[in-house]
Amino acid sequence: MGRSKDSPKVDRKRLPRHIGIIMDGNGRWAKLRGFSRARGHRAGSQAVRTVVKACRSIGVQNLTLFAFSAQNWGRPREEVQALMELLAEFIAKEWQEIMDRDIRVINLGELRRVPPDVRTRLKSMIVATRKNRSMTLALALSYGAREEIVRAARNLGRRMRAGKLSPKDLDVNVFSNALYTSDLPDPDLIIRTGGEMRISNFLLWQSAYAELYFSTKLFPDFSRQDLLLAIADYQRRRRRFGLTDEQIRKKDRRGK
Ligand code: FPP
To answer: Is 248 helix (H, G, I), strand (E, B) or coil?
Structure first.
């Protein structure tokens, strides 16, 4: 159950094991107020804190945040710089809280392009939190799903050329293990804020059976309550994974 009386009812025993969030709408939030885009991203980073805390307190085991896409490098230089500064600030300011809350931080994406100071801080945080177990926070940073899939194919190709993997042994599991997300379950729920209804190169492989939830809230306005609404909506969905309703009912009965 949620905290306040009017919170949506969430069944803590049937939480999504992994939630991914496409945090969209910072720019529009800023424009509506006559602020710079950088100020919108700053407000977005406050919402990041809210969402991380909320997931941890509800008991969500894995949260992936789409913080910066491979394509975002093409944005104006000042905006890229502002986003990188916010990330560095987030790591510094949240370090203690992340440790106290036993959160493991990992990165999905091509860190080579990230400025050295941010990269070093993020790597230190990844190392410092590697034994934390209460929740995994995956920061998709300099991340693109197509780029991730191509990278995995290239690595698998190298293993084949070296005679370490036979083409006949390549299956869905082996491929999944070559992705950045190898130690995460597939996302059960993907939330996109900001009203657009698209996936924008986020976890394309992993989202094969994810439930999609689109919120019209701009990301800086996305609250704990909005997150609970998304989870409650997810819990009302009937997931079939390509099977029939009857087969799923039988499986559910066997599971009880
Ligand atoms: C999309 O909004 C959002 C981003 C490109 C970046 C998301 C970054 C943050 C929420 C802040 C920093 C992150 C962390 C983890 C501290 P947009 O600019 O495309 O919005 P618009 O569609 O309204 O223009």
So the answer is: helix
The Å distance, Cα 223 to ligand 1 centre, comes to 15
| CB 220 less than 6 A from any atom of ligand 1 | no
Sequence letter at residue 31: K
Q: Give the model confidence (pLDDT) of 194-251 as tens digits.
A: 999 999 999 999 999 999 999 999 999 999 999 999 999 999 998 888 888 888 888 8
Q: What is the dihedral of CA 178, 113, 51, 126, to 10 degrees?
A: 70
Top-tier CATH class for 14-143+186-239 = alpha beta
CA gap 209, 114 in Å, rounded: 31
C-alpha torsion sign, points 117, 83, 190, 197 = negative
Tell me the domain boundaries of the chain: 14-143+186-239
DSSP 135: E
Q: Is 63 in the pocket of ligand 1 (CB under 6 A)?
A: no
Is residue 177 among the annotated active site residues?
no
Establish whether residue 23 lines the binding site of ligand 1, counting it when its CB lies within 6 angstroms of any ligand atom.
Answer: yes
